[in-house]
Known about the structure:
Blueprint: H1 2-6, H2 19-22, H3 36-75, H4 89-105, H5 107-118, H6 124-162, H7 174-191, H8 194-203, H9 209-214, H10 216-230, H11 236-260, H12 265-286
Helix pairs in contact: 3-4, 3-5, 4-7, 5-6, 6-7, 8-11, 10-11
Amino acid sequence: xxxxxxxxxxxxxxxxxxxxxxxxxxxxxxxxxxxxxxxxxxxxxxxxxxxxxxxxxxxxxxxxxxxxxxxxxxxxxxxxxxxxxxxxxxxxxxxxxxxxxxxxxxxxxxxxxxxxxxxxxxxxxxxxxxxxxxxxxxxxxxxxxxxxxxxxxxxxxxxxxxxxxxxxxxxxxxxxxxxxxxxxxxxxxxxxxxxxxxxxxxxxxxxxxxxxxxxxxxxxxxxxxxxxxxxxxxxxxxxxxxxxxxxxxxxxxxxxxxxxxxxxxxxxxxxxxxxxxxxxxxxxxxx
Length: 287
């Protein structure tokens, strides 16, 4: 096992336009058949490519880690600075912040590798649709992360620092502050992708608008639980700061799916192929 990993060389090719992207619309779809070993090798290659992208982004994150840490300190409402309880905390916290920044920077690459891994079982139009939706996924992630960074996280820390302030002394450790802050930012960023994710699932035929409306009360409950996990505070106001936007995004997802997701991609392809076959039979009959 160790020898095979030592001799392993990842398959890195120059970027090029995929064949299915420029193929004719009436060209037949070709589904790749892969063995379990080939799937595992493909998954390994995707993970390694993600790591190769994260390394330079980690260096960029390391450069800006001190600025982010200082900003978190200011938003944490501490006067004398954040505390460190372990000798390795200063270095470990810088690594933690750098990794979060690297993940945010490489999010498009991570999404691309994940979608590319699922591509062998998709039709040509489904592949185009998924890649066309990637910019919107990234934009929503940046929007949500910005909302978490500038609104949700500072609001939560402000409330917590003022709770029983006449009895308790607010002395926050750097590890707790950074973990709380960045986890909330990342969680809100992921949560804001709900509209595009639901829309994609609707277009692929995995869920329907009718099911989304039927599951509304369960979705609200799950979103409330997700908001409670993202903002682990007893304050209902902080919970509402995250939960209300998520619920609004779910309703927006239903509206978008009902307007633009009425036609499932594979059903549309099947109808086009049937119409083409009928035209061909009609032309042959006229001859």
